[in-house]
Every structure is written in structure tokens, then in C-alpha cells.
Design brief:
The protein is of the alpha+beta class and 121 residues long. It is 26% helix and 16% strand. Bound molecules: iron/sulfur cluster (SF4). The site of iron/sulfur cluster has 14 residues, from helix 2.
Length: 121
């Protein structure tokens, strides 16, 4: 039997100038963080670097080459402060409760940006 074929349209080769659309899950997580600016602070001076918290919060924490936890996908200067989505708060609380060195705490992001006052203004 004769099968009729149609010419295929030429594919567009002009690059799309629009910015890439954000991943829906990442956008939802960012919105969740924006709505609830809770931050998990890692005190590296107390931490022993065994990485229990990274096993409890693999979505948020990675380990550096010495085993110390740090925030994933954050600028280097902000890697001890981990924004926590509301859905991950229970896991963050578990990590705090189980941290053997009490090196983790939850705080509001606004409190982290303020430096302690030295009484000179
Ligand atoms: S659980 Fe505590 S002591 Fe262990 S790596 Fe995490 S922050 Fe450090």
C-alpha cells in the first residue's frame, strides 16, 4: 500500500530569548521559604562534623571536604544559615534535637542579619 508522507516543517533555530522558566518545585519551595523565613543556623564552632544532620536533611545540607555541614545552593558567605521550607521544619527540629553538640538552632532570617550591639550605637 502506498503511504503518503508530508514534508516536515523546518525547525526553528533561533534561540529563545526568554529566560528559562523556573522549575515548578523550586518555585514552590522558594515561595514557601519567602512566606516563612525560618533559618537553620549551623554553629561550626560547636559542630564535630560527623554529619548526622546532613542525613536528616539531605534536601538542605551537604558536607564540606572535612565533613562539616553546609547549606546546599547558597552563596559561600551564607552557608551556615539554611532557609527551611515549612514542609521541612519537622526534619529540621529532629536534626536540632539529635545534634550531639547542640550546634543547630532555628531562628528567623531577620534576626540573623542584625549584628549584636556593642553598646556604642
Ligand atoms: S549533627 Fe550537629 S555536630 Fe553533627 S554534623 Fe550536624 S551540626 Fe555538626
Amino acid at each position: 500500500m502506498f503511504a503518503r508522507t508530508w514534508p516536515q516543517p523546518a525547525r526553528c533555530t533561533v534561540p529563545d530569548p526568554r529566560p528559562p522558566r523556573p522549575n515548578a518545585a523550586a518555585a514552590a519551595a522558594a515561595a514557601d521559604v519567602a512566606a516563612d523565613p525560618t533559618v537553620l543556623h549551623i554553629d561550626w564552632t560547636l559542630c564535630d562534623g560527623r554529619g548526622l544532620c546532613t542525613e536528616l536533611l539531605p534536601e538542605l545540607l551537604g558536607r564540606d571536604e572535612w565533613g562539616y555541614p553546609l547549606a546546599l545552593n547558597r552563596p559561600v558567605s551564607e552557608r551556615s544559615n539554611v532557609p527551611v521550607q515549612r514542609s521541612l521544619l519537622p526534619a529540621a527540629r529532629d536534626a536540632i534535637a539529635l545534634c550531639p553538640r547542640q550546634a543547630l538552632r532555628l531562628t528567623e532570617s531577620a534576626k540573623l542579619t542584625r549584628l549584636p550591639s556593642n553598646g556604642r550605637g
